[in-house]
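Narrative of accomplishments. A recurring question from our advisory board has been how the design workflow behaves on a single, concrete structure rather than in aggregate. To address it, we present the structure tokens for one chain from the evaluation set, followed by the sequence designed for it. No filtering or post-editing was applied between the two.
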């Protein structure tokens, strides 16, 4: 029961402003969060960069505002991401603050005030900008809780001189971070060590930030890490993920999805297809492409392979695949530039996912009960891969793909062998537990707590 005065107050204060980082793996969870909060009665404005903007027509129920940030219209500089993220944080501060001030004004006029700003952890300038216009803010963390903890550990290990700036290739376990080895730490080899340390300090800001935190994870997957985080921090945390499973949401793809692969999947036997995708940023060289291709072909399993434009360092990659490969594979393989991934993973024909273990892909695979072959490329992906193979035990980590024999053997282990069958059973069980957590377990409760907090602002 709510007193009429209170209800009236809320009706006036129910717009939320979301600030995503302009990369696919970050835009998606932010829009999914928007859909969840919209389904709970909030109005949503997405305040975004001119660079790599979300596709507003997919979300007619949201308002989209593009800030004049002067970020040049370029391709995502995948070889220099950290520098680019810090550049975004510098460039966006003033224009985002101006936009936000106008929105506050408009909210008053429309009698629909803004309750708070929710920003991606990498858009850390947003907290000060919200504060400036006297709005509370909440952070959305789009990686796993264990990644957050391992980033903090890097700062500590570097200060102790245990870890050099180039990271480590050591197989030894990191004390206190089981099951992570030194080589799994999300150390970046890109840019200078100073830029990387600054990056971690900025996004993991815990002692200086007072923003509560939304996590795209939950207790079923990461209870010990979440407990550790809550112990270390004074701000409240809300693990409400996997976000894409909470409320129905439109596609948030920045690239057009090729739906022809669904027709191809319809013709395949249940649980037989290996789905292969390395996400929106990772790339491989032509040697890796060839070894992957022949490993897949020699395994005789049908496969659906996403080769994103620009993801192979040789622009003529399709020529590399013609030398006998297409004939060898025939109807057994389907290659597309971009797939409707969530739908693919939900398809009964898909029996395994060869993934780079980006956090979104990992969560999507877990939510559909699909076991994985993990081939992490950089950053948090190594942490996720280790959790898949060692904690949830729903996948096999491929430590070296430059060998077609190993690729073939690993595919057979997952798709045919007894070992793979056990993984599939565990994956189905994990899927059920995650579903329960969303339906009436810990994620559900955290979401209610979050809504209560927003309404109390
Ligand atoms: C980036 C980082 O690389 C990742 O490690 C981090 O956790 C999030 O940000 P990305 O590499 O793109 O993300 O991977 P991922 O997090 O898996 O996100 C990719 C998204 O693109 C997924 O939601 C996936 O469903 C979607 N996708 C991918 C498609 O819709 N179609 C495809 O063909 C491939």
């Amino acid at each position: 029961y709510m007193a009429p005065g209170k209800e009236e107050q809320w009706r006036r204060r129910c717009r939320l402003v979301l600030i995503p980082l302009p990369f696919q793996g970050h835009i998606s969870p932010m829009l999914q969060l928007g859909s969840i909060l919209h389904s709970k009665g909030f109005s949503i404005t997405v305040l975004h960069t001119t660079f790599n903007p979300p596709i507003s027509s997919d979300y007619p129920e949201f308002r989209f505002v593009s800030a004049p940030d002067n970020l040049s219209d370029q391709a995502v500089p995948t070889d220099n991401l950290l520098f680019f993220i810090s550049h975004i944080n510098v460039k966006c501060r003033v224009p985002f603050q101006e936009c936000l001030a106008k929105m506050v004004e408009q909210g008053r006029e429309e009698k629909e005030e803004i309750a708070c700003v929710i920003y991606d952890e990498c858009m850390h300038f947003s907290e000060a900008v919200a504060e400036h216009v006297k709005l509370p803010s909440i952070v959305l963390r789009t990686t796993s809780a264990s990644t957050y903890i391992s980033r903090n550990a890097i700062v500590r290990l570097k200060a102790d001189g245990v870890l050099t700036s180039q990271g480590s290739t050591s197989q030894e376990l990191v004390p206190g971070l089981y099951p992570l080895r030194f080589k799994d730490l999300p150390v970046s080899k890109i840019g200078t060590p100073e830029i990387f340390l600054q990056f971690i300090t900025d996004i993991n800001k815990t002692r200086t930030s007072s923003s509560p935190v939304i996590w795209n994870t939950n207790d079923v997957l990461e209870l010990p890490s979440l407990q550790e985080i809550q112990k270390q921090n004074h701000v409240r945390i809300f693990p409400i993920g996997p976000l894409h499973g909470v409320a129905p949401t439109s596609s948030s793809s920045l690239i057009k999805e090729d739906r022809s692969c669904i027709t191809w999947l319809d013709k395949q036997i249940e649980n037989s297809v290996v789905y292969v995708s390395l996400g929106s940023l990772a790339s491989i060289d032509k040697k890796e492409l060839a070894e992957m291709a022949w490993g897949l072909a020699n395994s005789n399993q049908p496969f659906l392979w996403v080769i994103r434009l620009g993801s192979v360092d040789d622009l003529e990659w399709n020529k590399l695949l013609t030398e006998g490969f297409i004939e060898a594979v025939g109807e057994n393989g389907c290659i597309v530039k971009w797939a409707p991934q969530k739908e693919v993973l939900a398809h009964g024909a898909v029996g395994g996912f060869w993934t780079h273990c980006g956090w979104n892909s990992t969560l999507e695979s877990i939510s559909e009960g699909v076991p994985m072959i993990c081939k992490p490329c950089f950053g948090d992906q190594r942490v996720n891969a280790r959790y898949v193979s060692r904690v949830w035990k729903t996948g096999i980590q491929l430590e070296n793909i430059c060998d077609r024999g190993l690729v073939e053997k690993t595919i057979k282990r997952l798709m045919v062998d007894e070992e793979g069958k056990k993984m599939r059973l565990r994956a189905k069980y994990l899927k059920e537990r995650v579903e329960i957590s969303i339906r009436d377990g810990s994620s559900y409760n955290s979401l209610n707590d979050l809504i209560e907090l927003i309404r109390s602002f």
